[in-house]
Specification:
By secondary structure, the chain is an alpha/beta fold. The chain contains 20 helices and 32 strands. 31% of the residues lie in helices and 23% in strands. Helix 1 (99-112) crosses helix 11 and helix 19 crosses helix 20 (728-744). The chain starts with a strand and ends in a 6-residue tail after the last strand. Bound molecules: adenosine-5'-diphosphate and zinc ion (ZN) (2 copies).
């Protein structure tokens, strides 16, 4: 994958390293530099530098800037004939990356054909992406000068000690400084060197140090352990038997079957044996309950990592994981890069969730990386879901993953019955049929709660003219604007553009109408029809902060709410014991998509949201409004028929050569000028086709470039080029040569382009 290059921009400014410790031999150091190039670079080091350490190196024309790279390897002796630039500074005494993490990241750069330096950059905590020394945030040691010495005494003590004198100058006032701050201020020495100098100053009594130890928050363990059902027991035991070796498991458990309880008991067992557990979840902010459950069972050893935390908080969590004081690390996608001192187990909750795929920059899939990581760390991994992905099901069939099943709901809870209302036969008012309204009224009258699910926020999908064909469109995207009544605005849900709504048609002056319901309209209709009901909206316009989220969730849990009108935010893992009816208002949007994964997504969404009903003693019911009751996917969802669904889906994928049977990569390009992106993809295609012919990669099919399904987004025109293969190897071999040719192509500078390996979204 990566080729080494002695000096990418010619031998200008060939710095020669001054050896400060004469005994050491110069080393040739291979470094991953955070630049958009698919190669690693060689530099000259004063001696060996441990792989996984960060270093500051010059880069670019005339070495105009310094960047933080990561050492991949280090070998003695520099070739006399090649002039290497020297490393400016070694930033870490202890490597940031362990060997297995370095191995994982190299594998990822290779697999995703992404610039290796950017891959490493992604995996470094934000705090360490600049040229600062690494500093343990849990154990803060600070230094300050002592006050009892007179000037002549100081002068005498520092005689013939230039390094100490230089460092002591930093302590001009009575402020306290950390090692990292001092390293930054000195710039010329390594932090190890400064550490030695500090020691001398301490011994002479010229400075003093004090230490502040940050203690992890105390969480008393209050939760109790459930007695496991037989299926749960089997699942837990199977994974425990695999502790200490790589094994992958799929935990297919219907909603409410006690998957989380399995995670908890595994985490307890694993931490008892002195090992750490990584738990990846799709969305932390939406599921505070899950975090609470872990804390109540495992106490303060539970640490979280997600994008809602400040860089400092994330750094602290990262450190706890690295040091081993965190026994359970719970995080979203990027937490897969968290170091672990004693890795024991990885759990991926809702493994089918799309949020595990990074959709820009380094487009990795956290589930797939986690599987690779587990195999490299030689630990088991558990992929849990009520609706496992087709990839995971297929891997079970191929014998790669072992299947563990939870087929019953726990306690007395039962799966809800599912009914449908045929929209061809029944009229709707603002999205609701009288039947669904009645069903809701009945539940509320019985003191129960109702969820109405519609995956569109705002008031109306389209604002248009009743006479001519005019509709309010976003002028930056190929999309209609959504009307929001609360704010009286038209909004584009793709680029965020906000416009004032017209009162009359700008084309013909006729009155406007609003078509297609969103959460706001549903709420309005309900308020009119059920004036006594307490209604809350649960969408991203309403759930704007963590505290608002908690307020709404506890309102629902305590029974202060009768009806929840929600988007897919409501489907994610919440446990509402009093919900007895889930109404699915408009599943049909999902049936019209051209994406081959759309049926899978629809099925997953339906099962997840239906899973909110009947989670406790009260029996639940799901009502679906649809104009397509005959649709095979809907029918299978209605019957809770998972295996029927898997069979149908896999059969269709196989026939079309789609994943998991075939392998895909998608080139994307975008440009502000129309036609430029597709033009550029034709150029890419030509390059790829030539390589394919020359190397005879017959299995690989390179399609024609096309405009993206939504061509215009935020003012840019987008196009894509699909590459398919029924074998993985020729595809990846082709991509390797292809990407390196693209980097040198002069055309590649005019258009923004990227390569998406195993794409999950095709628009
Ligand atoms: P899932 O994660 O599959 O949706 P949970 O683990 O949240 O399911 O379990 C659903 C509910 O059942 C929770 O309230 C949980 O405390 C309870 N539960 C889990 N396992 C058991 C068990 N073995 N016996 C009784 N109740 C259980
Ligand atoms: Zn008109
Ligand atoms: Zn837009």
């Amino acid at each position: 994958m990566t080729s080494t290059s002695p000096d990418p921009f010619g031998p200008d400014n060939p710095a020669v390293y001054e050896k400060d410790s004469p005994g050491e031999q110069a080393h040739r150091i291979q470094i991953a530099v955070p630049v958009p190039l698919r190669q690693v670079f060689d530099y000259l080091g004063p001696g060996p530098v441990a792989p996984g350490s960060r270093v500051l190196v010059p880069f670019g024309m005339k070495s105009s800037r310094s960047v933080v790279g990561v050492v991949l390897s280090s070998r003695p002796g520099a070739d006399e004939n090649i002039r290497l630039k020297a490393i400016e500074r070694i930033l870490d005494d202890v490597p940031v990356f362990t060997d297995s993490m370095t191995g994982l990241l190299l594998w990822a750069a290779n697999y995703y054909h992404h610039p290796v330096g950017e891959v490493f950059q992604t995996a470094i905590p934000v705090k360490l992406r600049s040229a600062v020394g690494i500093e343990n945030p849990l154990r803060e040691i600070r230094y300050r000068r002592t006050t009892h010495l007179s000037m002549p005494e100081i002068g005498k003590l520092l005689e013939r000690a230039p390094k100490q004198r230089q460092l002591f100058r930093q302590f001009s006032d009575s402020s306290e400084y950390s090692l990292a701050q001092l390293t930054d201020a000195m710039a010329t020495a390594t932090s190890a060197g400064i550490h030695r100098t500090l020691k001398s100053l301490l011994e002479k009594g010229m400075i003093e140090r004090h230490e502040r130890r940050d203690r992890p928050d105390e969480y008393p363990v209050t939760g109790f352990q459930e007695r496991l059902t037989d299926e749960q027991r089997t699942a837990v035991d199977s994974v425990i038997e695999s502790f200490g070796q790589y094994r992958s498991f799929v935990l297919h458990g219907i909603t409410g079957s006690g998957k989380t309880e399995v995670y908890l008991q595994l985490a307890q067992q694993c931490s008892k044996s002195g090992h750490q557990v990584m738990v990846l979840i799709p969305e932390i902010a939406l599921t505070p309950q899950l975090l609470e459950r872990f804390r109540s069972r495992l106490g303060g050893g539970v640490t979280v990592i997600h994008s809602g935390l400040s860089a400092q908080q994330r750094y602290t969590s990262w450190w706890r994981a690295r040091e081993g004081t965190a026994t359970v690390i719970i995080g979203t996608r990027s937490a897969v890069f968290t170091p672990m001192k004693q890795p024991g187990l990885i759990i991926i909750d809702e493994e089918h969730d799309h949020s595990y795929k990074q959709q820009d920059g380094f487009r990795y899939h956290a589930r797939d990386l986690a599987i690779k990581r587990a195999s490299m760390e030689n630990i088991p991994i558990l992929l849990g879901s009520a609706t496992p992905s087709m990839e995971s099901i297929h891997n079970v069939e191929k014998g790669k993953h072992r299947l563990l099943k939870l087929s019953q709901r726990t306690g007395r809870a039962r799966l809800p019955g599912i009914e449908w209302i045929d929209l061809q036969k029944h009229r709707q008012n603002g999205g609701l049929t009288p039947q669904l309204l009645e069903a809701a009224r009945t539940e509320i009258d019985n003191g129960c709660q109702v969820i109405l699910y519609i995956n569109r926020r705002g008031y109306a999908a389209v604002a248009g003219c009743t006479r001519c064909d005019w509709k309010a469109r976003c002028d930056r995207c190929d999309a209609w604007l959504t009307f929001h009544r609360k704010t009286n605005t038209l909004r584009c849900h793709h680029c965020g553009r906000i416009a004032r709504p017209e009162s009359h048609c700008p084309e013909c002056g006729h009155a406007l109408f609003y078509h297609g319901a969103g959460t706001q309209r549903l709420e309005e209709v309900l308020k009119r029809q059920l004036p006594d009901a307490r209604i809350v909206r649960f969408d991203s316009d309403e759930v704007t902060s963590r505290s608002r989220l908690e307020e709404i969730l506890s309102g629902i849990q305590q029974g202060d709410m009768d009806i929840v009108v929600g988007t897919q935010l409501i489907s994610k893992g919440h446990d509402f014991p009093r919900v007895t009816l889930v109404g699915i208002v408009d599943p049909d949007q999902g049936l019209y998509s051209t994406d081959f994964r759309a049926p899978e997504y629809l099925f997953q969404q339906l099962v997840q949201v239906a899973g909110r009903a009947g989670r406790d003693q009260l029996p639940g019911k799901v009502v679906i409004q649809t104009a397509h009751p005959e649709n095979p996917y809907l029918k299978l969802a209605l019957g809770h028929d998972y295996s029927g669904f898997h069979q149908l889906c896999l059969q269709q994928r196989k026939a079309a050569g789609f994943p998991p049977f075939g392998f895909m990569a998608l080139w994307r390009a975008e440009s502000a000028s129309p036609g430029a992106a597709i033009q550029f993809l034709r150029h890419i295609r030509q390059i790829g086709s030539n390589i394919r012919e020359n190397r005879n990669y017959r299995e690989v099919e390179i399609l024609d470039p096309v405009s993206s399904p939504m061509e215009k987004l935020a003012g840019r025109y987008r196009a894509q080029l699909l590459v398919k293969s029924n074998l993985r190897k020729p595809l990846h071999d082709l991509l390797s040569s292809w990407t390196s040719e693209m980097e040198t192509s002069t055309q590649a500078r005019k258009v923004r382009w990227s390569l998406d390996v195993d794409p999950t979204e095709m628009y």
